[in-house]
Each structure stands twice: as structure tokens, then as C-alpha cells.
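Just curious: can you write a single protein's sequence together with how it folds?
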Amino acid sequence: MTKIFKAACIQNCSTDDLEHNIRICTQLCLDAISAGAQFVAMPEFASGFSTSGPKVTPVAFAEKDHPFVAVFAEIALEHKVSILIGSTGVTAPDGRIFNRSFMVGPDGEVKARYDKIHMFDVNLGKGKVVKESASIAPGNKAVLAPLMGEQIGMSICYDVRFAHLYRSLAQSGASMLAVPAAFMKLTGVAHWHVLNRARAIENGCFVFSPCQVGTMSGGAECYGHSLIVNPWGQVLADGGKDEGYIIADIDLAEVKAVRAKVPSLQHDRDFS
């Protein structure tokens, strides 16, 4: 069982051009693998999306025909690494799209899939309106995925504001949490670091949060600052404001050590 490994988060600026996004993400992924990463995580909508007013339109295909998933399954198999496809659009039966995350194992097989539960329907004032539910069909199931002999809890972007989801994942066995995102610059400046560090601290988990960066097709601005946070809440790596990747050494023994110091998972009480 691997307890110490290198983890990387890719930070890209997606366009509505699938082939462009595949090229950029492939290069960044291979660069991270060359630097020793055994686990690589990509942002939300790494395969591409655009915005038009409040509507979010991801690049989308049926899962079995999705070229983005196929490319990174092949890379995972060739290099014997685990890859989190932070999310990509997958067509839903009702005409909308699932915002779906995939955990791909070193054998190139999808080990788990997660559909974003919480829809980013907000009005931030001054014309900053987003209605994700206009085009995205929400999921309804929390998901754990295998990673390095342990479990990682899957989530996507806006989910990070719902602490009970992560508590449930930690109580169900997660020692790591994934928060791939296309976090808005406006809210990112105020909340991104605080929310990710809080999810790590309150659950005693490593948190991997790859985030889109820069101006997207349609004009939306994403914050960047992809993060790797340890169970004590310390930021091990921060992606800043440019495309690239971050990498850090992960020692899963830290999870047990932190939870022994502050055993809050054992102190939950039912007050309903």
C-alpha cells in the first residue's frame, strides 16, 4: 500500500475548442508525470466550456464517446498513474448535461464517477448572474474513489461551500478530498483559500483543488490558485495566476497523526 506519493494539480485556461484543451492538458499532465507525479488532478470543465450571460455551456459528449476521457485513460495506462478528470460535460437524457468527474486508475479504467450535486445559481450583483441549472443536471450521490490504497472524496467547485458533504465523505472513510473547480475570480479572491483550508482542517484530510485560470470563452474570469492543502490546513502548493501545474509530496500518515491530535470526527453528535 503506497502511503507516500507525489500529487499534482493542473491549472489550465479552457476554451470552447476541445482539441486545444486536450493539447494543453496533455502537455501539463505529462510535465507533471515527468516531475514524478503519481496522481494528477485536472480542473472542472478541463475539456472546455463557454459562458453566455448566466448560462454555462460545457463541451459535452455521451460518456462512451467522450474523446477527453479516452485520451486521459490512455495516458493513465501508459504511465501507470491515477488521473482525476476534474470534470467534463456528459450528455443527460433530459437534454441537459451532467457536470461529471472521473477518477481513472493506473490501469486506464474509470474507478469512479461523480456528478456535481450543488448547482451554482447565484446573483452577485452588478450583472454577475450565473444559473448553472439552466444547462446542467445535478447529481444526487456522494462518491468515494480509490486512490493510493485509500479513498478520496469527490466533489466539484460550488460543492466546497457545503461542509456537510465533506463531513459525510470523511466519516465514510475519505482521507483525501478533491475539489476541481472553475471558481470565479470575484468570489475566489474572498473565499477560495478559506474554504479549501477549512475543508482540510475540519475533516483532517488532504485537499486537492485544481482550478481554471484566466478569461474563459464568453468572458467569465476564473481565479486560478490551484491548491494542495495538508490535513493541518497548511497550503503545500499554490498555482498562482498562470497556466501550469503544482506538485507536492503527500504522506498519508499525516492524516492519522492530525486526527489523533484533534479527533473531531469522533466527536460528531446528532442534534436533529
In short: The chain has five helices and 20 strands. The first strand starts at residue 4 and ends at 11.
